[in-house]
Amino acid sequence: MTNDDRPKLVSHEQVAETFAIPTINVNRFLVTAHPDRFRIAFGESFTPEHPTFHRLAVQMTPWEANELRMVLEELLVPFQAQIKEMKAANDGSDGE
Predict the structure, then answer these.
(1) Contact assessment for residue 30 and residue 40, using Cβ atoms and an 8 Å cutoff
(2) Among 51, 3, 43, 1, which Cα is nearest to 23's?
(3) 4, 43, 45, 85 — which has fewest CB within 10 A?
(4) In the 8-state DSSP scheme, what is residue 12?
């Protein structure tokens, strides 16, 4: 994996902006990488007046995270054409 392939870090302000739109359904997740573990939090939310509310979070070792990656890659194979179309529709590229 090259540096260009790695997820980009975002600021607290950028994360806060993702929670600025009120919603009934939460459709987001946050991934935090530490040297010894990965943490995936699903449906976290917060406001300036309230603490962070966690809906669900899981932690895993790098080995377990890699296993999850491999399972997801395999499960997503049938959806690659659809994903490519959605990417192209969003950014005007060829979906690559």
Answers:
(1) yes
(2) 43
(3) 4
(4) H
The two structure tokens encoding residue 58: 């899981």
> Closest Cα partner for 33 from 58, 67, 76, 62?
62
Cβ atoms of residues 44 and 52 within 8 Å: yes
- Alpha-carbon distance of 70 to 85, in angstroms, equals 23
**pTM of the predicted model as reported, rounded to 2 decimal places:** 0.56
Structure-block tokens of residue 18 = 């993702």
- pLDDT tens per residue, range 9-66: 667 776 666 666 555 445 577 888 889 999 988 776 666 666 666 677 899 999 999 9
The answer to whether 15 touches 28, Cβ cutoff 8 Å, is no
- Extract the tokens encoding 64: 């377990």
Vertex 91 angle, CA 82 and 28, to 5°: 70
Q: What whole-number distance in Å separates Cα of residue 69 and Cα of residue 33?
A: 14
